[in-house]
């Protein structure tokens, strides 16, 4: 691969943690550059998972569709995140679709290539295990939320998870720096757009958050924590 | 602790504070504050936290300084 990537972006990649800059460059050189424009897909649910990627720039939405055609948003990925890491290694079809929400730049490796790299650099395999562990813990938390929390709490907790992942301090509060429609929020929390709209409007009126062109800024994060935690 | 260090403490995010001095978590627990582990800990300062919990910031900062002082001894 010929693209040059700055050290800072590489250091942010969970897959390349604790690997020396020189080795990172060697690993990177075996990969292929992939650019995906907004609305295009890295892969679709059900396709053979021959490739895995690390995202260097842009944002990706991970979603599944049900047989009835309903979409469930599994999560969002930002720079440094991994795509298809586990499934490609397990050789099972992609369980979800990965859609670019912004112009994305990624590096991809074909399965056998990555397996060879992992044998040569065991830290890569350990890192991928860590990434799976993190995703697994997050999904367990969301599963618990779905089973035990009220809709309002689920939406509050989903917003707080996004704050953790994409939060940026701005003068008014904390901006969730990804485009986030009410429909997507509904699809993340197992509810519908009407309920989410009602909640978001109420929170806006109460000054808890403000939304503008699909960008949400949390003004009173503490209120949201209290709502989400039953404090 | 000097004045400039006190100012730094006031401007530090809660996440940074807890990373440098994990022992200070006890102060938050004593005040029933959910700051350790909170999603906004990387963005909020001790002063922000004092405000949302309705505590005097100077008091909270002083208590945190006391804990830090015992660690540095």
Can you tag this structure with a few keywords?
heterodimer, A: 231 residues, alpha+beta, Jelly Rolls, Arc Repressor Mutant, subunit A, four-stranded antiparallel beta sheet, 9 helices, globular, B: 73 residues, mainly alpha, SP0561-like, 5 helices
Layout of SSEs?
The complex is a heterodimer of chains A (231) and B (73).
Chain A: H1 7-11, H2 21-29, E1 32-36, E2 41-43, E3 51-57, E4 60-65, E5 71-77, E6 82-83, H3 85-90, E7 97-100, E8 104-110, H4 111-120, H5 122-148, H6 151-166, E9 167-170, E10 173-176, H7 182-189, H8 193-205, E11 209-212, E12 215-218, H9 221-229
Antiparallel strand pairs in A: 1-8, 2-7, 3-6, 3-8, 4-5, 4-7, 9-10, 10-12, 11-12
Helix pairs in contact in A: 4-5, 6-7, 6-9, 7-8
Chain B: H1 3-11, H2 14-20, H3 25-30, H4 46-52, H5 57-72
Question: What does it look like?
Answer:
The complex is a heterodimer of chains A (231) and B (73). Chain A is α+β, with helices and mostly antiparallel strands and 231 residues long. Chain A has helices at 7-11, 21-29, 85-90, 111-120, 122-148, 151-166, 182-189, 193-205, 221-229, and strands at residues 32-36, 41-43, 51-57, 60-65, 71-77, 82-83, 97-100, 104-110, 167-170, 173-176, 209-212, 215-218. Chain A has a four-stranded antiparallel beta sheet. In chain A, a hairpin with a 2-residue loop joins strand 9 and strand 10 (173-176). The termini of chain A are far apart. Chain B has one domain: Orthogonal Bundle (SP0561-like), CATH 1.10.3910. By secondary structure, chain B is an all-alpha fold. Chain B is globular, with a radius of gyration of 11 Å. Chain B is built from five helices and no strands. Classes of the chains: A alpha+beta (231), B mainly alpha (73).
């Amino acid at each position: 691969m010929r693209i040059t990537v700055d050290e800072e972006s590489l250091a942010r990649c969970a897959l390349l943690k604790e690997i020396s800059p020189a080795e990172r460059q060697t690993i990177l050189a075996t990969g292929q550059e992939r650019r995906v424009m907004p609305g295009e897909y890295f892969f679709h649910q059900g396709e053979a998972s021959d490739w895995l990627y690390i995202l260097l720039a842009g944002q990706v939405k991970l979603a599944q569709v049900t047989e009835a055609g309903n979409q469930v948003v599994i999560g969002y990925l930002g720079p440094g995140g991994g795509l298809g890491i586990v499934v490609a290694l397990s050789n099972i079809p992609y369980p979800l679709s990965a859609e670019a929400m912004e112009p994305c730049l990624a590096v991809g490796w074909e399965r056998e290539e990555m397996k060879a790299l992992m044998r040569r650099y065991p830290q890569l395999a350990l890192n991928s295990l860590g990434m799976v562990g993190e995703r697994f813990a997050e999904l367990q938390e969301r599963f618990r939320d779905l089973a035990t929390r009220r809709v309002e709490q689920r939406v509050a907790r989903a917003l707080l998870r996004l704050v953790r992942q994409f939060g940026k301090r701005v003068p008014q509060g904390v901006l969730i720096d990804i485009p986030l429609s009410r429909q997507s929020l509904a699809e993340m929390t197992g509810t519908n757009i009407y309920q989410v709209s009602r909640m978001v409007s109420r929170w806006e009126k109460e000054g808890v958050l403000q939304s503008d062109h699909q960008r949400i800024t949390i003004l009173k994060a503490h209120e949201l924590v209290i709502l989400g935690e039953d404090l | 602790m000097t004045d400039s260090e006190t100012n730094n403490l006031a401007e530090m995010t809660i996440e940074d504070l807890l990373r440098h001095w994990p022992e200070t978590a006890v102060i938050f627990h004593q005040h029933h504050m959910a700051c350790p582990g909170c999603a906004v800990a990387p963005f909020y300062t001790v002063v922000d936290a004092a405000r949302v919990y309705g505590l005097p910031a100077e008091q909270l900062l002083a208590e945190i300084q006391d804990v830090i002082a015992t660690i540095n001894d």
